[in-house]
Structures are given as C-alpha cells and as structure tokens.
C-alpha cells in the first residue's frame, strides 16, 4: 500500500504541474518532512453521485502518513451540499461543512480556516434547484457579472472566484487518473456499421450543442437527433427519450469544444447503462480521455448483461472509420 501511495503522489505532482497548478520547483507536493504540516490541503466541494465519495476515499488514503515519522502529504476537508451530497461522505474522517446551494462565503471562510490550498468540485447539482436558491452576497456578485447562466459560463465564474481568493482549482482526475474513459470498445457487444454512422453523426451534433454551452449529450437514431441534453441532465434526458423512442437509439456524450476538465466533466456510470436499457436504447458512446467513468468494471458488466454496447471514441478514431 505504501508503494502504491508513493506512486500515486508522484503522478499527482506531475499532473498538477502540467495543468499549471504548480511550479517545477516544488512540483506541488514535496516529500513530507518530519514535524511539518501536510504539503497541501484539498477542499472537496461535494454534490450528488458516486464521484465525491470516490474522491473522499482516495483523499483519505493520501491523508495517511506514508512513514511512521512523516505527516501525510495531503490533508483534505469537505464542503458538502445539502440535498445533494451523500450523507456518508462525512464518514471519511475529514472535517465536513454542510452548506446550502449558493453559500459561497461560508465555503470560502471554512476553507481559509482549514488552510485549504486546492479546491476540487465533484458531483452533480440538480440544475432545476438553481432557480430556488437563496444566494449570499458573493454568489449574487458572481451571477451579476454573467451574460447567461449556462453551465460552463457559470462554473468558470465560480472557479475564477475561488482562484481570486487564493485557491488553486484542480480536476478530479488529477487525484484519480483511472477516472478518465479509455479508448475503444469496452464490453462484448459491438456497434453495427449503421450504429457507427449514428455515433459519428451524434458526435458532431453533441459537439455543436456543447459549443453553445447547452449540454454534453444527444440521443440519435438513423442520423436523426431524438433529444438534446439541457437543464435536466443525462438521466432525465434518457427517461424523456424512452417515452417516445423505444425502438433503439444511441446516447452520445462528449466534452464541450472548450471544456475545462476541472469543471462539469461529462460523467457516466452503471446508472447510465440501466437508464439506457430501461428506455429501450441500444448503446452509449463517450469521448475517450475526456469523460469520467464511475465504476468502469461494474458498468461494463452491466452493459454486457443487458445487451448494450459501450464505446469510447476520439475524433481521430471516427475519422479513420469514415475513410
């Protein structure tokens, strides 16, 4: 376990340096020194879903001393959103503050008190709830400066607000590199030639939708867009399609053309597969290296059992298929 943690810390130093979150002189996480505090403190802002729990589990491992005489290399605390984050996230041993949506000042005050250096945002927020939030004065200032309330625009403004107050914003995949979708077909079911044509078509449509900062996914069938992801999110998109298109279809989920991988990265998991099956769809295509995959092995096993194909593509792969 100790060797694995050292290896992970090495990767973490390299990834955060490449993301511009550290200088080459300290590589973000210097080796722990006896008698000194942890090198960095991560503030995890937790929403709904499995990802915040996965991050808390990983950070809890890093929060343990690698040597008997050394402090942990990473310490972490959690700001968890009420009505969104799983209540068990408080069981990972970190100091946890429960907040309501829009309470940015409480989060920032808590992070400063705890000595947080790096902020990671993970998990979903029910976007419909945005309209019922009671924002604090900082949240009001953030929103007042926006031209619109689309996801990417809003999240970049929130990220900028944290960075303006001395925090560095990191990506979930910086701490869990295996989170990113591997290229290729994952399970035993292979798309037909017609389905590959739909995937390539859906890819173009999803990228266009993302360029407008509307959503990250579309459902397509026979080169027709059946539905576009918007404020309701992926699961409700699939359910909506299932009401009128139970004869097939493919969910294509990709990153936006200028996606900031620290913010609202496309995410799929076992629940996505079950929702697709319930809606009568045929499969899932995601963007390799730019999609979070929750519990990959379980997801593939479920897709195989339910008869769905799952593929992770990139533009080069799709171009090769068309040539």
UniProtKB/TrEMBL annotation:
Domain of life: Bacteria
LpxI C-terminal domain ranges (all copies): 184-311
InterPro entries: LpxI (IPR053174), LpxI_C (IPR010415), LpxI_C_sf (IPR043167), LpxI_N (IPR041255)
Pfam families, sorted: LpxI_C, LpxI_N
Domain LpxI N-terminal per the UniProt entry, residue ranges: 42-179
PANTHER family in alphabetical order: BLL4848 PROTEIN, LPXI FAMILY PROTEIN
UniProt-recorded name of the protein: DUF1009 domain-containing protein
Organism: Magnetococcus massalia (strain MO-1)
Lineage of the organism: Bacteria, Pseudomonadati, Pseudomonadota, Magnetococcia, Magnetococcales
């Amino acid at each position: 376990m100790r060797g694995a943690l050292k290896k992970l810390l090495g990767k973490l130093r390299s990834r955060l340096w490449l993301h511009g979150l550290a200088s080459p002189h300290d590589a973000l996480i210097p080796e722990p020194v006896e008698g000194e505090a942890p090198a960095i403190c991560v503030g995890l802002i937790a929403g709904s879903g499995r990802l915040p729990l996965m991050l808390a589990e990983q950070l809890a491992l890093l929060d343990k001393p690698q040597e008997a005489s050394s402090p942990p290399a990473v310490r972490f605390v959690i700001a968890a959103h009420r009505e969104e984050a799983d209540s068990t996230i408080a069981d990972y041993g970190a100091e946890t503050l429960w907040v309501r949506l829009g309470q940015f000042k409480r989060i920032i005050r808590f992070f400063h008190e705890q000595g947080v250096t790096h902020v990671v945002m993970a998990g979903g927020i029910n976007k419909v709830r945005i309209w019922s939030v009671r924002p604090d004065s900082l949240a009001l200032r953030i929103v007042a400066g926006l031209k619109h309330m689309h996801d990417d625009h809003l999240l970049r403004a929130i990220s900028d607000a944290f960075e303006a107050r001395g925090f560095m914003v990191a990506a979930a995949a910086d701490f869990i590199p295996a989170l990113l979708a591997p290229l290729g077909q994952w399970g035993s079911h292979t798309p037909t030639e017609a389905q590959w044509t739909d995937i390539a078509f859906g890819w173009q449509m999803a990228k266009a939708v993302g360029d407008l900062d509307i959503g990250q996914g579309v459902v397509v069938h026979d080169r027709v867009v059946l539905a576009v992801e918007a404020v309701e999110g992926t699961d409700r998109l699939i359910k909506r399609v299932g009401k009128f298109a139970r004869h097939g279809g493919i969910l294509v989920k990709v990153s936006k053309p200028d996606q900031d991988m620290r913010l609202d990265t496309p995410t799929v998991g076992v629940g996505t597969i079950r929702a697709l099956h319930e809606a009568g769809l045929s499969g899932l295509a995601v963007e390799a290296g730019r999609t979070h995959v929750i519990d990959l092995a379980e997801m593939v096993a479920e897709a195989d059992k339910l008869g769905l194909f799952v593929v992770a593509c990139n533009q080069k792969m799709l171009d090769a298929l068309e040539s």
